[in-house]
Structures are given as structure tokens and as C-alpha cells.
Specification:
The protein is mainly α and 108 residues long. It has 5 helices and no strands. Helix 3 runs antiparallel to helix 4. The radius of gyration is 27 Å and the shape is rod-shaped. The chain starts with a helix and ends with a helix.
Length: 108
């Protein structure tokens, strides 16, 4: 006759080993940076961030005007390194400028 405690222990040990094997496969998939799904997720996230910054710039320029916006960006250019980085990101590009003019024109 076998010991019931030993049988329960063996079942528990088998469940633990199975869970460990499942986690190892998940870790392996997450660690692979070249997986197509991971690259699509990263690309989609970056596209959303870029679009959000564009919409923010357009809304601010349409609200306060180009001259005031450019003055604020110029003030950022004179700041510390993080401010200069913000000035580079928030600098007006032709698409943002044109869209802001369209929105500002429709508001008036």
C-alpha cells in the first residue's frame, strides 16, 4: 500500500512542475524581441504617441495662436536639457501648422 501523503505530494509536485513549464514558455515568448506581434505592438504604440502629440500641438496652436505658441517654444529652447528636448518635440511642423490654421479658421 502506498502512503496517501506521498501520493498527494507527488500530485502537488507535478502541478508545480507543469506551472513552471508554462511560465517558462511565456517568458521565452516575451523575451523574444523579434516576434512579429511584439514589433507590431511597439509600432502601434509609437504611432499612437506621435498622433497624440500632433493632436495636442494642433489644439494648442488653434487655441492660443501661432505667435504665442512659437514664443512659448522659444522659451523652452532656452531652458535645461529636458526643456530643449520638449522644444524639439513641440516645434511646429507644416502639418500641425496647417491643421491648426484650418481649425482656428472654422472657430472664428
Amino acid at each position: 500500500m502506498s502512503d496517501p501523503n506521498m501520493a498527494r505530494f507527488q500530485l502537488r509536485l507535478a502541478r508545480i512542475e507543469q506551472a513552471h513549464a508554462e511560465l517558462a514558455s511565456v517568458e521565452e515568448r516575451l523575451a523574444s524581441p523579434r516576434s512579429g506581434r511584439a514589433l507590431r505592438t511597439i509600432a502601434r504604440s509609437l504611432a499612437i504617441i506621435v498622433m497624440a502629440v500632433m493632436v495636442l500641438k494642433i489644439a494648442i496652436v488653434a487655441h492660443i495662436g501661432e505667435a504665442a505658441y512659437e514664443a512659448r517654444v522659444a522659451a523652452l529652447r532656452g531652458g535645461k536639457s529636458i526643456d530643449r528636448t520638449g522644444a524639439i518635440v513641440l516645434a511646429l511642423d507644416p502639418v500641425s501648422r496647417g491643421a491648426a490654421r484650418l481649425i482656428a479658421g472654422r472657430r472664428n
